[in-house]
Amino acid sequence: MRRAGGVMLSQLALDREQSTPLYRQLYLQLRQLILNGVLPPGCRLPSTRTLAKELDVSRITVISVFDQLLAEGFLISQAGSGTYVNAEVQHQVQQIPSNRNPIPRVSGWSLAMSRRSQRYTKIGKKTWYDYPNCFVPSSPAFDQFPRQVWNKLHNRYLHHPGIELLSYGDSRGYEPLREALVDYLRDVRGLVCRKENIVVVTGATQAINYLGWLLLDAGDVVWMEDPGHVAARLAFSGTGARVLPVPIDSQGIDVGYAETVLPQAKLLFSTPSRQHPLCITMPMQRRLELLQWAARADAWVIEDDCESELYFHGRPPNALYTLDPNSRVIYVGTLSKVMFPGLRLGYVVMPEELVEAWCALCTVMDRPPPNFTQAVVADFMAEGHLISHIRRMRELYAGRQQRLVALLQQHCGDFFELQQAQAGLQLLAWLPPGLDDRQVSEAILQEGVDAYPLSHWSVNPNPRGALLLGFAGVPEAEMQRGVKAMARALRRQGWLS
Ligand SMILES: Cc1ncc(COP(=O)(O)O)c(C=O)c1O
Asked: Which PROSITE patterns does the entry mention (predicted)?
């Protein structure tokens, strides 16, 4: 913990009423902070002048204390650099005693927390560093991102950030980015809108959560694709809405089934251009059916369009938003797939009438995403780098998919029925009927390889098991290793001869 200027040492408290001299109090407290590890080895202390000023004591007092701690080996001094906690005291450091009582728990979760939180516990993920272990879905090729261009654009703002980058900025997002998004959406998704319709978010996940808060009351019905986007299902149920699974047929979400069998919905969530995770493209007839229902029911449709830009051949179908004359569709896009997920930027296109309410909600929940990042991305888009990157990635991912198919056929024969993707980052590998995909996924994981089971996205059981295999972020050597490990796992279980 080297910190320019030294740590703040807010734990120090000198009592002028005590008979113990200030010098001794300061010495004992600093030594204790070092011994119990609050000041770890290598930690830089503030200068004696700064500390004396902050504690309102004479500099001589602080110098004497530092001298004693230096003499005892608790501190070391580096000429011209400062005073540090000596790394040698590490072996003396005791654990900080924990004197807190644990929070009482019922069935593994704390009583003191909301019911909403209980829904989230099972899926909690502390880190996402398993990216891009093969074959994690939704993972782009990190190594192919044009870092030089990216760094150059960063430098443009790094040295002279204007006030618009240092302040909270506009709740709708940085204006030049919204302008760049208008051009991008028209060009890439055939979606015509104005910058006044766009808000920038930290990703589709935030967008979906905010839309849940904005549009739903407890008890409202949501029709949700099943299998479908897990985070969206949980986000909506977190609002207290009744989230009802709607099956996917060969054309996408089965609106006819929902209308006949389920209570009327206030909101429908769909991934029409590329159903997640079944990779189905919704044909025009079903799109029109869906929009007609939304108009009849006066319901909202959230269109999550997360990877349609990455179409391998020909042109992707235009966004559902473009067909909607009644302003029922709210379009959610993300840069996580076409750039990288750590960027944390996405966008929502919504009827202008909703924008003011959205901004009010944002003011309560958070502030807009970092303006600095938004400015860099605005330039990245406006100068054509994003389009070039997408073109390159389309080609790369199409090639990687072909390679994965060839390797799977070579090492696993016809064990899988492969459903190749027309777009995006993953394909579906259907299992022989009767095999449980969670069991298969678990066996493959034992070999250190991720192959997510389709059931992960499902509420109701699927008629047939499958694995969703991400290929886009997996380079050749890694892919070979992964497929061989997969074949080994299948053989070990006796599923593959
Ligand atoms: C269906 C779907 N939509 C959107 C996203 C992107 O989420 P975010 O923009 O928050 O990274 C994902 C991420 O994997 C996804 O699976």
From this structure: HTH_GNTR (PS50949)
